[in-house]
Amino acid sequence: xxxxxxxxxxxxxxxxxxxxxxxxxxxxxxxxxxxxxxxxxxxxxxxxxxxxxxxxxxxxxxxxxxxxxxxxxxxxxxxxxxxxxxxxxxxxxxxxxxxxxxxxxxxxxxxxxxxxxxxxxxxxxxxxxxxxxxxxxxxxxxxxxxxxxxxxxxxxxxxxxxxxxxxxxxxxxxxxxxxxxxxxxxxxxxxxxxxxxxxxxxxxxxxxxxxxxxxxxxxxxxxxxxxxxxxxxxxxxxxxxxxxxxxxxxxxxxxxxxxxxxxxxxxxxxxxxxxxxxxxxxxxxxxxxxxxxxxxxxxxxxxxxxxxxxxxxxxxxxxxxxxxxxxxxxxxxxxxxxxxxxxxxxxxx
Length: 349
Known about the structure:
Blueprint: E1 2-8, H1 14-22, E2 29-32, E3 38-43, H2 46-55, E4 65-68, E5 71-74, H3 77-95, E6 99-107, H4 114-128, E7 135-136, E8 143-150, E9 153-159, E10 166-167, H5 169-175, H6 188-199, E11 207-213, H7 219-225, E12 228-234, E13 246-249, H8 258-261, E14 266-271, H9 277-288, E15 291-302, H10 309-320, E16 326-332, E17 341-348
Parallel strand pairs: 6-7, 6-8, 11-12, 11-14, 12-13, 14-15
Antiparallel strand pairs: 1-3, 1-4, 2-3, 4-10, 5-9, 8-9, 15-17, 16-17
GO molecular function, one term: RNA binding
Protein name: THUMP domain protein
Domain THUMP: 51-160
């Protein structure tokens, strides 16, 4: 399989779009990209995927655009030229005596602009395919050489006739009306919690009281509020969420007075704070004594650097060895974790 399309949605709605796309009757993988609102589809070929999208368009409420991809290469002008040349040679019989335009959508940091890429590739095509009698027409073109640049990877396609970018204007209009924070996912942390809920559903059953340490901006608290009767969100920062069962304790976790601020047994503790590994685990353990037996803790280990991840994990496990009633249930590397992160699931016995 290979990259066959980029699909876009309103930034923040990537999980909903991914869920819709997963239901499509075609073999595929759906990958996150570093760019908000953009997912990459891996499948057999772009033509089949585009047709499937068209057939199921009415079921895809979060899909804004589909950009079919024919070739992938490194983001390098010479490599892009090679990809363009390959596609033109492959389709040359249908391109003879036609007008064309080059369009480049660039995302990331580069030494060149999109306009520079367009001019270079346009000139390259005119200079190297004179036998096709091609001409440039910026408005009324017969085919478009489309270049999508995502940092170090570039994707090239030739659009003509039915094989073209698909824009769903109805969805664009509908998503404009959705409120930014109330109705959409917040950030990458929410994807981590989504993975955990799907992988360990039993952890999230019959939750009355949840304590979420380091809540801001609120990704985990928002998802936990749908699983628990009450979520104590501990953070000095603002929460960009709105749920009646979320209680914001606007303090540093180390300053929380449990008897005054919470004063009830805890069913689940979560911690996704950006602290040194030892500091973070000690905060989690501060609340663990109020956790019910046979209940769980979800703790994100955020290593100082990716190369210290093993060392930092060993340090945390050494600290946990001192707490005989807290067992390591599982250590997982979630898809949404960064290269510096591991997710530690603990259980109180």
